[in-house]
Design goal:
The structure is a homodimer. Chain A is of the alpha+beta class and about 110 residues long. Chain A has a single domain, classed as Arc Repressor Mutant, subunit A, CATH 1.10.10. In chain A, β1 and β2 form a beta hairpin. The longest helix of chain A has 14 residues. The radius of gyration of chain A is 23 Å and the shape is elongated. Chain A starts with a strand and ends with a helix. Chains A and B meet through α1, α2, α3 and α5 of A and α1, α2, α3 and α5 of B. Chain A binds a DNA duplex (30 and 30 nucleotides) through α4.
DNA sequence: ACCTCACATAGATGACTGTCTATGCAATAT
DNA sequence: ATATTGCATAGACAGTCATCTATGTGAGGT
């Protein structure tokens, strides 16, 4: 074991300073990861950007399906994921379902990133 | 087709306002989704929080493995994912590999969220 | 030289995910 | 009443992922 300035060691038997910061609790980490997973998909990111960029920040499935070269059930599936994760709300009006972004949900996500 | 005030319609054959905002380009969306996927895992979030909370914002695998009830190869795997995605750097010193957080990488991610 | 230790890599496996087709349902139009 | 339309749900399938055990590698210690 070779010492330098009496404190720091370059090569030693032990790692020393195995001390690491307290991790995020497993439960917090899982909650945050679940929210991130909902957003970590290219199609869902496109959906969010399209809806938030729409006239009244809402859009129906028809327009979204036309813009994204995917089948309507696939779009519906992604929208459901975003609703379940709290990023969108769904409002059925007549024959159409209108989706709107939940205003501060993404900001909350941003603030929770470590 | 029933009209109200000559412009807005409550019930009509067409959705009207199928106009949606321009989506994020597919390529941008995929790049962002790839970065988000790297972070959207509870174990990797815990690793990030532990490393950034460590004395000199760096930690070696030994300490991380002890804290997270997972096998060492699994921790190594997650660390590699984070390095590949640009969230961590790896510095091999002697027998130990020290991982450090890339300072502004998470901020970039935050700013890219739609 | 040889052994030990810290970490990485390889391969296997069960679980999850994104997409599709097929179908159901409720609201509107005829 | 019946047909049509917009959307959701169900089920199937291929690809990806998180984890494990087993093994390789390179630096240090003896």
């Amino acid at each position: 074991m070779e010492l330098i300035d009496g404190n720091q060691s370059i090569a030693t038997d032990d790692c020393l300073s195995t001390a690491v910061g307290e991790p995020l609790s497993r439960k917090e980490a899982e909650t945050l990861a679940t929210a991130l997973k909902a957003v970590a998909d290219p199609t869902r990111l496109q959906l969010l950007s399209m809806i938030s960029g729409s006239p009244s920040s809402e859009a129906c499935v028809c327009g979204l399906t036309e813009a994204l070269d995917l089948t309507q059930p696939t779009i519906s599936h992604h929208l459901k994921v975003l609703v379940d994760a709290g990023f969108l709300t769904r409002d059925k009006r007549g024959r159409w379902a209108w989706y709107a972004v939940v205003p501060d949900r993404l900001d909350v996500l941003r603030s929770l990133l470590p």
